[in-house]
Amino acid sequence: SHADSPVILKILQNWVPRVSHYFDKEHYTYVGHQIVIQESIEHFGAVVWPGALALSQYLESNQEQFNLKDKKVLEIGAGTGLVSIVACILGAYVTATDLPEVLENLSYNISRNTQNMNMHTPEVRKLVWGEGLNEDFPVSTYHYDFILATDVVYHHAALDPLLATMAYFCKPGTVLLWANKFRFSTDYEFLEKLCNIFNTTILAEFPESNVKLLKATVREN
């Protein structure tokens, strides 16, 4: 039906002219807040990719459909932390996770953009896809309302562990929101695998950026 077809959107230029002259900082505005993101040249995960902009914009524009207030939100592959910061501003209890080498820059960005604000204090934790999930995030303790993932699928060897991680955290009642640039056959193969496991809907497409935003929920038999 028409209601199920994705909306076609454009990634808005939500960043504002640079106040600082350093090349490594980007300034964005979401939900009425200026967000300053420090990128890191050493690490692939520490650059703001288009999927992060697409999901941030979508969350800002669809607060009634996806109300994050007081919800438990886990971001996997958080990178620079932009999406987690936006979720935080929207009132969520956020846990931002990534590989150990990214955590220092991630923590810096998240703390500088959320301190002294009237919001739930976000948490930053190590999460290596597919590793130690039962130990670090036991099901008995951790249940998330939303799993957020942007730009997590590209040419890397961890696609199966990534899918296993999504499956681990996506419990009945959990909504996975995944935004990604689709360029390679591997991207579409991952999507196909995701569709085999979850109920999947394309919420939005950003054709100029080749980004699709998907919602996935666990199949309840």
In terms of topology, how is this protein built?
Layout: E1 7-8, E2 25-30, E3 33-38, H1 50-61, E4 72-76, H2 82-89, E5 93-98, H3 103-114, E6 123-126, H4 133-136, E7 146-150, H5 159-169, E8 175-181, H6 185-197, E9 198-206, E10 211-218
Parallel strand pairs: 1-9, 4-5, 4-7, 5-6, 7-8
Antiparallel strand pairs: 2-3, 8-10, 9-10
Helix pairs in contact: 1-2, 2-3
Description:
This protein is of the alpha/beta class and 221 residues long. It has a single domain, classed as Rossmann fold. Helices cover 27% and strands 26% of the residues. It contains 6 helices and 10 strands. The strands form 2 sheets. It has an 8-stranded mixed sheet with strand order 1-9-10-8-7-4-5-6, sandwiched between helices. It has a two-stranded antiparallel sheet with strand order 2-3. Strand 7 (146-150), helix 5 and strand 8 form a beta-alpha-beta unit. The longest helix has 13 residues, at 185-197. One of its GO terms (biological process) is methylation. Keywords: Methyltransferase, S-adenosyl-L-methionine, Transferase. Pfam families: Methyltransf_16. It comes from Cepphus grylle.
